[in-house]
Amino acid sequence: xxxxxxxxxxxxxxxxxxxxxxxxxxxxxxxxxxxxxxxxxxxxxxxxxxxxxxxxxxxxxxxxxxxxxxxxxxxxxxxxxxxxxxxxxxxxxxxxxxxxxxxxxxxxxxxxxxxxxxxxxxxxxxxxxxxxxxxxxxxxxxxxxxxxxxxxxxxxxxxxxxxxxxxxxxxxxxxxxxxxxxxxxxxxxxxxxxxxxxxxxxxxxxxxxxxxxxxxxxxxxxxxxxxxxxxxxxxxxxxxxxxxxxxxxxxxxxxxxxxxxxxxxxxxxxxxxxxxxxxxxxxxxxxxxxxxxxxxxxxxxxxxxxxxxxxxxxxxxxxxxxxxxxxxxxxxxxxxxxxxxxxxxxxxxxxxxxxxxxxxxxxxxxxxxxxxxxxxxxxxxxxxxxxxxxxxxxxxxxxxxxxxxxxxxxxxxxxxxxxxxxxxxxxxxxxxxxxxxxxxxxxxxxxxxxxxxxxxxxxxxxxxxxxxxxxxxxxxxxxxxxxxxxxxxxxxxxxxxxxxxxxxxxxxxxxxxxxxxxxxxxxxxxxxxxxxxxxxxxxxxxxxxxxxxxxxxxxxxxxxxxxxxxxxxxxxxxxxxxxxxxxxxxxxxxxxxxxxxxxxxxxxxxxxxxxxxxxxxxxxxxxxxxxxxxxxxxxxxxxxxxxxxxxxxx
Length: 650
Fold this sequence. Notes:
five-stranded antiparallel beta sheet, four-stranded antiparallel beta sheet, 21 strands, alpha+beta
């Protein structure tokens, strides 16, 4: 097994530490390593806020070993391989993300999302379907239709519910009249959610656009969210259109309900519930939040239960009849508790576009961004008769193509650069290029230019980012070199492993053991019957078990043949048993009879019998030898005054 548990890999997760005033703490050959780098790692791996001399002495040696391994990786060129470059680039992209957002906007969005998490809105909608790639004519047609619908409802010509049922393009409106029930943050697309929470109760929103089309929203109610309940249920499924089936289901669920005092809820769910997915788990449905995807009757029943393990009376939903059990209740956490979760959700949600746009606008101001983009200039270039769509580089002689299209700091982008961007993003086709699409594409292009520049500045602007980036780089190198020198080598080097085993095989011994048959029963009488048949020696074990169980089902609850020693369970048996059939004993509520088949003497384990342990020991050996060699090759010097100046966690 490859051993990947090295202390330093732990540093590649979590918090950042801002570098303070630096002093040289360590010298390896002629290379100085500063106090800040050591502290960055030291405090991440230490829970206590105070540094002790003993701790510092231990960590500095680990740190030196780490630096020597990274140095070895660099000398072997592992930092220039395609695998390393790709992996490091992938990590870098992830590490950059927190530095490429407007944190003030992000905080506002988290507070907004929290409010919408603790408050649920009930809303209805009417939808006019429209694809994301619709033509301008289709878009205008849908826009006029949704406005006409809104006017008819607002003016009292039709009720919202009737219109939703009759003409909404949402199929569910035929039955729910457009009512989506209660929902909270992240349950709907952001633009829809935003409109629902910003429309007063009882009023109808202006038309909004989502990826599904145009909507108008009527807000019916706003209420505090109820939290979530870990729930189990028993369901008797019925046909909603069959009154006789409904009555039969009602009788069945009542019969089940009357058995609750004599049986556990889990047993009844496994036996009677028609929801077989949950029945296998004793009816467990997991966590159910208010404003979720359950019927109102179901949700009301769950949240009406006031205590854990409380069970409801039977009730009906469109699916059938139910009994629910509250297993555990959790209220919604406070803002600080949910902050990290909300932040992660925002990064994956359309809300993230707000933070990105705000951040880019601030960068444009900081870097004195100027745009000279003109749609007609681009159109003139690409409509020139000599324009070459297949090879953009051949268009240098076309008028204006070398003119500046945008500038910021010392960067100057030209029209040819934008044209090249269109070519590389496969946007350079006559069918796609109109005034509206060109303007959107230029916005994307200008944003990508300024973000690319900002990424190049991150290490200069943020010392903590630079330090974290170095940790990831060194961590990847550490893993790669350790894999080559230790982990994979220990597995692939079969000759070396065999030699190591031969030199150290006395470390892997089997103790004195016994090969035994173990019979287990809940009854002393039944286990004695097993003894009786075993002593006669006429029947095989399968026949004995079958015979004993014929008069009492599961009289013998288990049987196994095993090799045991004095470290195995049940421990109390080992010292008392003799060769052959032993007297039954009561152990932890079970009657157990052991038949000792063979006494096994202590012996050395073969390589294949303890390969995992031996490979692990060989890896430790290889690492020690490798580190010894590295220390002999390189000169290290610790500045103990600087080391011991580390006192408290920053």
